[in-house]
Amino acid sequence: MLLTVIWGSCVLVGKCDLQDSTAVDKLDTKGFSLTGSGITIDNLTRSAAWIMVISVIPFLVIQLLQLLDSTSGRHVAVLIALILSVVLLISYCLYQVFQRQIQVRRMKYWEERRVIFGFLGHVKKRAIGRLMKDDGEVNTEIVYKIFKTIDTNNDDHLTASELKAFVIGIRFEEIDLDASDADKIMAAFDTSHDNRLSYDEFRKGIKKCLKKAVRSGKGSNLKNVVDAIKIIDHAGHQAKNEHEQLLEGEQSDVVVEIVENVKMTSLKAVGLLILGTVIAAAFADPLVDAVDYFSDATGIPTFFISFIVLPLATNSSEAVSAIIFASRKKQKTASLTFSELYGAVTVNNLLCLAVFLALVYIRGLTWDFTSEVIVILIVCIVMGIFASFRTTFPLWTVSVAFILYPFSLALVYVLDYVLGWS
């Protein structure tokens, strides 16, 4: 339900015009154009999609181990899948706790690359000649000329003030650097830590920057200087875009409560998780009985109640929240929307499966849910991989999500009620 109907609905309500394969915030003039309208998410949301794919591993393990012939072997298989689910759940919770620190490290990483590639672009514009040779090596003659240009006092060393003067020089606005970025360049190039750069340090720093640009760009098979310029520009734009996306996430208009007592908040969060687990374990069996009794009393098939009505009811909170955020038609709210969906699926996969497997193991029940597991694997893997390799979803991608929903229902119905797999 989350990855099909709600996922597709969020793309529909959050669609914006696509320009250069990127959604433009709050601009929706192309209507229902299948390729000209859609949404764009950030790279952190792609990571959430990958995590969701990983969360189906316990399903795959339990299903494969059920091929064992002995009853005791299958019982052990349930225990293995249970332990794996709990371990992955704890790992996911720890990831959420330390995600802030991960985000800060990513921001510092892309900030450094933005400055370095911006500086390299500035050097390239001031170079009278080719900065890189045909074999991909640095043109030391050109680098030396640039070094002497920056070294205004001719002492064969570059100081921070000389770097700042160079950075804020001709056409610096196009490179998007300022005087404060000169300190970052000094820190990156100054291997002797004496707050000044020798020619050797400057040359090695430029060479290192060019290698990073080649790795970030289109490859190392450079045929001419035009290729080098394109690679430097590509690396610079990539670093700038990544940094801006992370910065926008930091300055999000979503209100975040400042946590004063981290220890108490963490204990409260763990307590609520345990409470939710206990409630799920206590009411799982009565819920199944209630579905059976309701079906008998109304004449409505249990399949319809179990696979259509209950998913709508249990996922209603995520659906409302996701659609509200998606309707704001902004990239950062779209990212938040789909991160919420992938996170909800991840928790459903791990926490609910752990509770269910615990009941099966303790009571010594038989695991026989092949059709349901197949559907979970298909939907999670298809939508997870589909989302993890792209950040822009044109409107045509909605059809993939919407088609998966009736396909899943039909597959479960055929396998369970026609072929009698359960």
Automatic annotation (TrEMBL):
Membrane spanning stretches: 47-65, 77-98, 267-284, 304-326, 338-363, 369-389, 396-415
Record-annotated EF-hand domain positions: 138-173, 177-212
Superkingdom classification of source: Eukaryota
Keyword Aminoacyl-tRNA synthetase in annotation: no
Entry keyword set: Antiport, Calcium, Calcium transport, Cell membrane, Ion transport, Membrane, Metal-binding, Repeat, Sodium, Sodium transport, Stress response, Transmembrane, Transmembrane helix, Transport
Cited SUPFAM superfamilies: EF-hand
GO cellular component terms attached to this protein's record: plasma membrane; vacuolar membrane
InterPro entries assigned to the protein according to its UniProt record, in alphabetical order: CaH_exchang (IPR004713), EF-hand-dom_pair (IPR011992), EF_Hand_1_Ca_BS (IPR018247), EF_hand_dom (IPR002048), NaCa_Exmemb (IPR004837), NCX_ion-bd_dom_sf (IPR044880)
Pfam families per UniProt: EF-hand_7 (PF13499), Na_Ca_ex (PF01699)
Gene3D superfamilies tied to this protein: EF-hand, NCX, central ion-binding region
GO biological process: calcium ion transmembrane transport; intracellular calcium ion homeostasis; sodium ion transport
Location(s) in or outside the cell: Cell membrane
GO molecular function: calcium ion binding; calcium:proton antiporter activity
Similarity comment text for this entry: Belongs to the Ca(2+):cation antiporter (CaCA) (TC 2.A.19) family.
Record's protein name: EF-hand domain-containing protein
Organism from which the protein derives: Eucalyptus grandis (Flooded gum)
